[in-house]
Structure formats: structure tokens, C-alpha cells
Design a protein that fits this description.
single chain; alpha/beta; 2-enoyl-CoA Hydratase, Chain A, domain 1; Lyase 2-enoyl-coa Hydratase, Chain  A, domain 2; 2 domains; 4-stranded mixed beta sheet; globular; disordered N terminus
Length: 272
């Protein structure tokens, strides 16, 4: 097993076989690329996706991560037929397995940077982990969302951790108890996604959102998302006390100083 740690992750010389990577203007796009398998996640894809997310977390220049997918399905969840190896042939992945790495949902949730899921097709089962734990989810209006595990005698245990943080409890319970698909419109209504857009507008909608987020104070964004995670389940009084310390630290940060100076000088801020 590799001794690589998150502090020294590199993309140099890495052969990603199940995802495609692209970087442009502080936006890092990870595209799921097993369309023949409905982008179902095997061990190889999980390892590659987690590695790419953790790399993005360590790189200061990366301000926003977009998770997209090739093909007609965004992701069909876990690949029950092939949970390891390289069944599709081609270049063999050389992405190191890191024993200290966490799962994909944890990597997304703790990235402390905006993460947008760009949903061009249906989302099934374990793929909901990506949607529920991202900061934003934009879907084509024809996409369907389902947690069909109960129909196979399985319960979506891991999905619940994120699902009930974005959907109302009764809506979420009905969603997983019956295993029936819901529309993108219902997913937006219940908070599972931010919004549904016509398929032909998906690229532009996600690009506009990513560009807007990438143009905001990156240090403050990271500090704010870290605080959001920490206070989420705390007692109100404890959360308020903690957040009081964070606003003081934020006001003393380089981003806040630059933002205030730019406002007073009537110019656009220049973020490092």
C-alpha cells in the first residue's frame, strides 16, 4: 500500500481510467467515465474519485469542484457485478490506494470548497451520496432520482447520513421506503437538488454557477464551509459561541481585509 498522504498528492504520471479530469479558471471538473456501465462505481472508480477530490482539497488554486458524468446516466450507484479490477480493459489505473483515505461522500463533504454535481441523467442508489453531500446540485429536467435498494432487500444506510440533511424527514423516508423514482422537479421541491433546468441549458447553468463561486473570496469560503460543518449539529448556544470566534477570525483574514479595502477604494477585490 502507498504511503502517500493528502499533503503531497500529485496528478503527475497518474493514469485515471474511470474518470476524466479538467481544470480551467480555478474550476476542477471530475467527469465519471464508465458510460457502458452506467457510471456504476467499482473499487477503481471510488479510489480515483477520492484521490482526485483530495488532490483538489489540497490545491490552493482550485476554488470549485464540478462532478459531471459522460453518457445517459449520471451514476447507477455501486457496481454489483464488478467491485474491483479493470473489467473494461484499456489502460490500468496506477492511482495509489491510500489506507488513510475516506469514502467519496466524506471527501466531498469535507472538501471545504464548493462542490457542484452536474446531473445530466438519472441518479440511483449510492450515487445519491454525491448529490446529497455536494454544496450544489443542478440537474437536467428529465433526470430521475431513486433509492431502489429496498426493492432488492437492501436498505440505503449510508445514503441516509446526507439525505436527511437536505430532504424533509417524511419525504426522505417515503423516498427510501418505497424505492420509487422521483422527477427532477420533485427533487428540487424537496431540496434534494438546487434546481432542474432544461437539458440544453445544463452546461451554461453549471458554468455560470461555478464561475460565480470561483470569483468569490476563496479563503473566506473555505473558512465558512468549515464552520458550517462544525456547527451543523451543535447545540444552539454552543454553535453561537463557536461562530462568534469565527467571525472575529474572518474579519482579521487577508480576504476580509482585501474585500473591505476594495469596497472603500471602489474597485473589484483581487483574491490570492
Amino acid at each position: 500500500m502507498s504511503e502517500t498522504t493528502q499533503a503531497d498528492l500529485s496528478l503527475d504520471g497518474m493514469n485515471f481510467t474511470t474518470v476524466e479530469l479538467a481544470e480551467h479558471d480555478h474550476v476542477f471538473t471530475i467527469t465519471l467515465n464508465r458510460p457502458k456501465r452506467k457510471n456504476a462505481m467499482n473499487a477503481e472508480m471510488t479510489n480515483e474519485l477520492t484521490y482526485a477530490l483530495d488532490w483538489a482539497a489540497q490545491e490552493r488554486r482550485i476554488r470549485v469542484v464540478v462532478i459531471a458524468a459522460n453518457g445517459d446516466i449520471f451514476c447507477a450507484g455501486g457496481d454489483l457485478r464488478s467491485m474491483s479490477g479493470n473489467p473494461d480493459g484499456g489502460v490500468v489505473s496506477n492511482i495509489p490506494h491510500r489506507p488513510e483515505s475516506n469514502d467519496v461522500a466524506h471527501s466531498i463533504r469535507h472538501l471545504k470548497k464548493p462542490v457542484i454535481t452536474k446531473i445530466q441523467g438519472s441518479v440511483l442508489a449510492g450515487a445519491l451520496l454525491m448529490v446529497c453531500n455536494a454544496t450544489h446540485a443542478i440537474a437536467a429536467d428529465h433526470a430521475k432520482f431513486s433509492a431502489p435498494e429496498i426493492l432488492r432487500g437492501i436498505w440505503p444506510f449510508m445514503v441516509m447520513a446526507g439525505l436527511f440533511r437536505v430532504m424533509p424527514k417524511r419525504e426522505g423516508l417515503d423516498f427510501i421506503m418505497r424505492g420509487q423514482a422521483i422527477s427532477a422537479a420533485d427533487a428540487a421541491r424537496t431540496g434534494l437538488i438546487n434546481r432542474a433546468v432544461p437539458a440544453q441549458e445544463l452546461d451554461a447553468s453549471v458554468e455560470q454557477l461555478a464561475t460565480e463561486l470561483a470569483g468569490l473570496a476563496p479563503g473566506t469560503m473555505q473558512m465558512g464551509l468549515a464552520a458550517y460543518l462544525k456547527q451543523e449539529d451543535e447545540d444552539f448556544d454552543d454553535a453561537l459561541a463557536y461562530l462568534r470566534t469565527q467571525i472575529a477570525a474572518c474579519l482579521d483574514s487577508p480576504d476580509a481585509k482585501e474585500g473591505i479595502t476594495a469596497f472603500l477604494e471602489k474597485r473589484e477585490p483581487q483574491w490570492d
